[in-house]
Amino acid sequence: MPSLKDLKNRISSVKSTQKITKAMQMVAAAKLKRAQDAATAARPYAERMAAVLANLSASAGAGGPKLLAGTGSDQTHLVVVMTAERGLAGGFNTYTAKLAKQTISALQSEGKTVKVLTVGKKGREQLKRDFADLFIGHVDMSSVKSDDFAEPAIALGKNLTARFEDGEFDVATLIYSQFKNVLSQVPTAQQLIPAAAPADAETIDLGNAIYRYEPSEDAILEALLPRYINTQILSAMLEGSAGFYASQMTAMDNATRNAGEMIDSLELQYNRARQAQITKELIEIISGAEAL
Amino acid sequence: MADKLHFSLVSPAKELFSGEVDHVIAPGSDGEFGVLVNHAPFMTTLRNGVVRVLEGDTVKMRIFVRGGFADITSAGLTILAEEARMLDDVKAEDVQAEMEATHLKIQSLDKDDSNRATLQEHYDYLESLKAALVH
Asked: In B, which residues are within 8 Å of A224 by CB distance?
């Protein structure tokens, strides 16, 4: 049986934990709003870009640039794993890392060579145990402000296209957490290189009209493809950040509620102990008086 | 005019404009071009410059774009800009200050620094933005 003082200490420590989780929840909620707005605002651009690419690649056929047509082989795979820099967000990082592990293992069992590039610290930590020898790079996002993903996205895009040009890999897959809504973030694997227009991208029926290109179709494709890849990385980062805050908010909400329940039961225990002590003292006094 | 052109301008950060307009003049990489309703399908890259949106004969809106693409289909005109700013919201002093800061940064770097090209590009962009403000 813990003493009254012990119980008091525990209650106050749980109370301060609750204050922290409550504060974190509110901070996450505020940041979630911003991240969600940014993710929503970036969507039209990504969608239009996909539509344009779908139009172009439909007419380009197989003879297009390497970023679109691929190297003709699919032996070496690069898996880009995008997670958060920080934890305390429920299963957010774990789920993404789990999908990454499954993807890597599946590719390996098919006899492919796999390389891994991680974005965000948490995913790297989780993959280190099994796949440390596959790591070829890491992007540190800890210094990046949550509303300024454009620069790191472009840098990562450049990095990937350069590696692709050097023949370091044939296929790049991006694994990130897709933001469905506040309650659900879905870990998603998406092929990044060779660029594939999503199947659901709207293509516009031109009838019999013929597209005209300026300067030329190839020049446009060449300019468009790297940007398309950058855009995909950017929207993955934005969705990931929105998902992270949503997940953190939910996790912290649960933690706050848990702490509340714990405080209630500790307080009950404390009151019982206090009453038991009072009763005990009374009995001592009464039996002392009776003895006289 | 009964028919109007559906025009939308999006940048990675947000959708700046979407709606029905009469006439859009955009800076194509091979020269400026105007788009009216029912334009033939056409796609081009853009250079840094001003996209003008006209309502009748008056310029309603001027948007500065930094590179990108214009895609014209039967559904309308879509401009995908790398970066876009409403010209009315840009202040000349801010641009000047940013130009000077960028210039200093360029000078502090080594000749073969890989960042130099990026910064130089940014400087050129600011210069063309400044030029657009004067007109």
From this structure: 69
Query: Which residues lie closer than 8 Å to B44 by C-beta, 6 or more apart?
Result: A213, A214, A215, A220, B28, B29, B30, B33, B69, B70
Model confidence over B70-111: pLDDT tens digits?
988 888 898 998 888 888 888 778 888 888 888 888 878 776
* A201-223 tens-digit pLDDT: 566 555 566 778 878 878 888 88
ipTM for this model: 0.73
| pTM for this prediction | 0.81
Work out the minimum CA distance from A49 to partner chain B, whole angstroms: 7
Choose the mutation target among A52, A147, A218, A230 for the interface with B, i.e. most B CBs under 10 Å: A52
Interchain proximity A210–B41, CB inside 8 Å: yes
Domain ranges within chain A, ordered by starting residue:
4-21+252-291, 31-248
Q: For domain A31-248, which architecture applies?
A: 3-Layer(aba) Sandwich (3.40)
| Nearest-by-Cβ selection for B41 from A41, A150, A209 | A209
> If chain A, 292 residues long, is cut into consecutive pieces of 10 residues, what is the mean pLDDT of each piece?
88 95 94 89 84 75 70 86 88 91 92 90 89 87 75 87 88 90 88 75 61 80 86 89 92 95 96 94 94 84
The pLDDT tens digits of the residues spanning B43-52 come to 888 988 889 9
In whole angstroms, what is the distance from residue A80 CA to residue A227 CA? 18
Taking alpha carbons only, the member of A195, A163, A146, A170 closest to residue A46 is A195
Query: DSSP assignment, residue A132?
Result: G
CB-CB neighbors (< 8 A) of A209 in chain B: 40-41, 74
- Which residues on adjacent β-strands are paired with residue A178? A186
Residue A29 DSSP class = H
Residue A203: DSSP 8-state: -
Whether B79 contacts B27, CB under 8 Å: no
Which CATH code fits A4-21+252-291? 1.10.287.80
Q: Identify all chain A residues contacting B29, using CB atoms and an 8 Å cutoff.
A: 214-215
